Amino acid sequence: MAELQPLTDRQENILALVIKAYIETGHSVGSKTLVEDFGLEVSSATVRNDLNVLGELGYVAQLHTSAGRIPTEKGYRYFVQRLSGDFHLPLHERQMIRHQFHQARLDIEQWMKLAAATLARTARSASFVTAPVARANRYRHLQLISTHGRLVLMILVLSSGEVKQQMLALAETLPQSRLSTVADRLNSLFVDRDYDDILTRLGQLDTLEEEVTRLVLDILKSTDNRPISSVYRDGLVNILDDEGTRHAIHLLEERTLLAGVLAETEAQGSDGVQVVIGGDGRWEELRDCTMILARYGVTDDFYGTVAVVGPTRMPYDRNVAAVRYVADLMSGFVYEYYSQEAAKPSVVSLPTYEDEPSD
Amino acid sequence: MAELQPLTDRQENILALVIKAYIETGHSVGSKTLVEDFGLEVSSATVRNDLNVLGELGYVAQLHTSAGRIPTEKGYRYFVQRLSGDFHLPLHERQMIRHQFHQARLDIEQWMKLAAATLARTARSASFVTAPVARANRYRHLQLISTHGRLVLMILVLSSGEVKQQMLALAETLPQSRLSTVADRLNSLFVDRDYDDILTRLGQLDTLEEEVTRLVLDILKSTDNRPISSVYRDGLVNILDDEGTRHAIHLLEERTLLAGVLAETEAQGSDGVQVVIGGDGRWEELRDCTMILARYGVTDDFYGTVAVVGPTRMPYDRNVAAVRYVADLMSGFVYEYYSQEAAKPSVVSLPTYEDEPSD
DNA sequence: TTTAGCACTCGAATATGCAGAGTGCTAAGA
DNA sequence: TCTTAGCACTCTGCATATTCGAGTGCTAAA
Fold first, then answer.
1. Which tens digit of pLDDT belongs to each residue from B118-170?
2. Pick from B107, B249, B346: which is nearest to A149 by CB?
3. Is the distance from CB of B138 to CB of A198 less than 8 angstroms?
């Protein structure tokens, strides 16, 4: 990340005001407007001088000579960095969000869906939520269900709480009892094992068991190494009008692209909320867009991502707060319901966070 | 549906040419252009006269006096109705599509995803695919898996092939063996039963069994009556540039809206491909859009929908063919792998349709 | 270091003119 | 009765010119 130049307090303030005004109006903002609309105690000429400095340092730019200033990506980054972390959503919004989660079924898919919908509405942007995946997913439970003929429905439950299904065509027709026996044996052998563990035990199995296990391994492998196993998107409508978000929509639709971006941003391992402005020069697809993302889950071990995507010109404080809030909620749910090692299995109710600030 | 006026052969031909030219160029098309570009055997004046007739009947319109003609929605409808059903995708495109399906895993979700992706690319439009749902979904199999404390993961397999999962908080901690016993009992009681059947048997159960069954009933009910249980979308990028498709994207994102439209269009019970142009006056969200949809599955009993959504100005013959082809493929898969009553359980391979027209 | 004043620049909005594509209509021809 | 040629008319799109206003940079004084 480029080094940020020191600014005087007034310059910092002016930068913040330029950003605020530009976010609100969408028009470039001039010195006179700033003085009048925000009641500055200095004259427009002074503001002009400061704007000049900000311009030289690259925090603001003007589309053409003698036009108002608009914030640059660097300007946004400086602003976001200075953003105090204690901005919260209004109480009633938080209550509404919590309320919706309380009404949902106890199901990670439901929560993901809900988180995406909530974020999209609150941040008035596009949003996405990826399923929480353990760094190395583990086998939890297998079930084989006879359907008709040699077709068998295989259901695999992973340590992440995800349930994978897969149709399987056997070489011969087998009764359900035989299938159950196979499933039971594999369950006893493989419970809580990861990909590598299971691979080494492949030799101990008979032909049928091995056939099933190979499929299990396929699935484990495909959810391993954090590819995106499932994603919920929402709120695309919100960014349709904005210029330059077409690339972003492309990003949201293309799993592989998204996975790439997430892999790199998450590799930074930042615990809190991360703000990627204009692609930070690394992702062409995010040019002119901002992505605010945060992990949820049990950090470093078992986590997913919630994120908001919108135009560079967006209310950062609000949206950062929204992402943080929803990520925290999701973390609570995942911790209580899906973390194997959960320390307090006693209280069975949705997390409440009653001790949050009143506003 | 409004009655369609009779037209002379030449007028019909001219209407088709206007539509063809407009779809290609996007510009309004005049009499002279028609004669020159398509080598008509009559003069432009004659064409003008016919255009006048078409205009009076409402098949074409002009944006302003003395501008070229563009097709109206009514014009498109007439054209589509006349469209011969024997237009097929080029052989190599069909081969490519089949190839992709052959490489997919044997899983209805995979197929839905693939169908959406394929349609989006082939028709260069947005697309969606809904899961096949039986009119009355039936219970197939239940599994209860102890996680930690009083939390239990319940997995319910439905006759549609869908696998539903749901977390469940019990009143007390129970061992896995007890849970398995409950699941076994419910499985033996309820297999192949629908909502009503199960409801009447609620009295025969103990407290724990009843608690589980109530959740089962909830899920059955929520997938009953054809609400949309799951949808895959794709290709939104393709219609981003077009005017008037914003509403359509809204429609694609809002499950309830989509469900409403599908409920009404499917109620018509047409077996083949259905083309809804400009919302047919019934759906504001589809103004300026065209939706081409077809059922797949075992008709009237167990079916889902594949569809394409794009601007009114789209290549109808091609897109109708694409929707029909993908729907047929999906029908084949569903028939072989998910239909309980499948008559030929012997051959276990993807349907091939080798007998299709060579081009 | 801040401020007032002033000339300058550029974009957005508005008006004007012109070329081209297309129409409607009429009268003559098949 | 249907088709065609001819002609006057209409309207768009494009380019050019003009004005208006917001905003800047610079300089000199406080």
1. 999 999 999 999 888 777 788 989 999 887 778 888 999 887 777 888 888 88
2. B346
3. no
Interface of A with B in 197-236 (CB under 8 A): 234-236
**CB contact at 8 A, B193 and B139:** yes
Phi-psi region of A330 (alpha: psi -120 to 50; beta: other; left: phi over 0): alpha
Q: Which nucleotide is nearest to B43 (CA to C1')?
A: D4
B348–chain A Cβ distance below 8 A for any pair: yes
CA distance B18 to B71: 7
Per-residue flag: A71 CB under 7 A of strand D: no
Nearest nt (C1') from B41 Cα:
D3
Is the CA virtual torsion A315, A320, A325, A330 positive or negative?
A: positive
Give this prediction's pTM: 0.82
**Contact of A111 with A165, CB cutoff 8 Å:** no
Contact A313, A24 (CB under 8 A): no
The pLDDT tens digits for A112-152 are 899 999 999 999 999 999 888 777 778 989 999 887 778 88
Distances (CA, A) of A348 to A160, A335, A336, B171: 19, 12, 8, 9
Contact (CB<8Å) A348/B150: yes
Q: Indicate which of B107, B218, B228 best probes the interface with A, i.e. most A CBs within 10 Å of its own CB.
A: B107
